[in-house]
Design goal:
Blueprint (H helix, E strand, L loop, with lengths): L2 E5 L16 H11 L6 E3 L15 H8 L8 E2 L5 E2 L3 H20 L5 E5 L20 H13 L4 E5 L6 H7 L5 E8 L18 E6 L5 H18 L3 E6 L18 H17 L3 E5 L5 H17 L2
Parallel strand pairs: 1-2, 1-5, 5-10, 6-7, 6-9, 7-8, 9-10
Antiparallel strand pairs: 3-4
Helix pairs in contact: 1-8, 3-4, 4-5, 6-7, 7-8
Length: 307
């Protein structure tokens, strides 16, 4: 498929402080690898109406975020989530990237897109920043697809090693969204049990034990794919965290880089009759730089090669 990479230089200005795992080098390591691929379309984020964010987050939270960015130094929004003067543009450009990706797909500029941005988003709840995340980009995207493009069946697949608690908080009451998260459990941020099914039985959480290997992971993944096929999504959003990799320092799952090709390919194959390859993903976790770059490259290759 014709595939775009959406990114912005502002991601490089989101300073989280010395030693923080959610660092600028995460983006640079991915981009250095992807720039070797001459088949990709490169795009920048677009400006957007900030009210779009308020479809996913409370107005009071969005206002609080806007006023939280310091003129100098660092500010902690929670124990893990740090913002600096350059974080404001990075945060809103991350949202602008996924909006640009969706609009590009809808305008037939490309069929799929991967957003290489930071800060990540899937831990940010309706009214709370946490886990390195400020705005829940994927939650905003799901609501945007429904409000702007009138989609009735949007799938959100989260394969970050950590439970996408923020996304679940935002979409669990939306009958137009199917949400599935595969994650290490018990682990940060808590929650994500199989009993959390959404208000309309529209969520499938798959907790995995520390040490889960590729074979065990894909056995579990088949349960998600079965539910995904039953849902028949018209558009697929992916929270693309790569920290389930065996080399990642913040997680204890044991995937290989090449597994991210298969994770992506199986979703595309399962949904091809319903969404014609309409897929947008955005970077979440992944903290070993070599593993992160390799895994993101595998993910993008699957998007490119799918027919």
């Amino acid at each position: 498929m014709r595939t775009a990479v959406i990114t912005s230089k502002s991601s490089l200005n989101h300073n989280t402080g010395s030693g923080h795992p959610e660092s600028i080098s995460r983006v640079t390591s991915i981009l250095e690898t992807l720039k070797k691929n001459k088949k990709l379309v490169w795009k920048n984020p677009i400006n957007f109406d900030k009210n779009i964010i308020k479809q996913a987050h409370s107005s009071s939270y969005v206002d609080a975020v806007e006023s939280s960015f310091p003129e100098k130094g660092l500010v902690f929004l929670d124990g893990d989530t740090v913002v600096s003067p350059g974080s404001k543009d990075a945060t809103f450009d991350a949202v602008g990237s996924i909006i640009a990706a969706i609009d590009g797909v809808e305008n037939k500029e490309f069929e799929a897109a991967h957003c290489v941005t930071r800060p990540p988003g899937h831990h940010a709840e309706k009214g709370k920043a946490m886990g390195f995340c400020v705005i829940n980009n994927i939650g905003v995207a799901a609501n945007y697809l429904i409000s702007k493009y009138k989609y009735k069946r949007v799938a959100v697949i989260d394969w970050d090693c950590h439970f996408g608690n923020g996304t679940y908080d935002i979409v669990k009451s939306n009958r137009n969204v199917f949400f599935s998260s595969l994650h290490q459990y018990p682990y940060y941020p808590g929650g994500g049990t199989e009993y959390e099914k959404g208000d309309h039985n529209n969520a499938l959480n798959i907790p995995l034990s520390a040490g889960t290997n590729s074979r065990e992971y894909f056995d579990a993944y088949e349960h998600m794919l079965k539910r995904l096929k039953e849902f028949q999504p018209e558009f697929v959003l992916m929270s693309a965290g790569f920290d389930a990799h065996k080399d990642d320092p913040l997680c204890q799952l044991n995937l290989e880089s090449k597994d991210y090709y298969e994770i992506t390919r199986r979703v595309l194959e399962t949904t091809k009759d319903y969404c014609n390859g309409k897929v947008v993903s955005i970077l979440e976790g992944g903290y070993d730089l070599k593993a992160l770059a390799e895994s993101a490259n595998e993910h993008v290759n699957a998007l490119l090669e799918f027919n």
